[in-house]
Amino acid sequence: MVMDDDLLWILKTIDRFGWAVLHIGDGCKHKECGNEWVEHPFSYSIGLTAMGHPEFLLRGWRKKDAGVTLINEFGARVQAGESFRHGQVVESRTAGAPVVFLEVIDDADMVASGQVYPEFSALQVVWPDWQGRYPWDKGYNRWKFSQQLSRPGPGRSGLQQLQIGQQ
Question: pTM surpassing 0.90?
């Protein structure tokens, strides 16, 4: 549960910038996280719902600043008028590679988003390993790039079908 001071910070940040980003895991200063090691760190946005866009969820980036920067990149792009959807592949300056957006089926970890917006949707930002393979691809480096997917990945052929259907 997000504490009152944290919720106030979130609301002020949304008011000032249009969205806020929370990071749960290494580098998190949230009272409930403490300094404990978190096996699967994640970051997520709160505020994009008010712009008519799904929130963003990023899993597996251990460094708080890197995860926050990636979500901020896409938050700024939404604020500038871009829109992202399930199955879309998009170049990211922050990730240094194309990322894929997957619709989030289970948003239970996005507690603060649910407190601010009782009804919201989200897209998980999924990035490839150094060889350009995604978590659903054979040979993906799961040890180095640990991303918990919030839904089954589409696979390479499924991803191509999604892209063709959305053109």
Answer: no
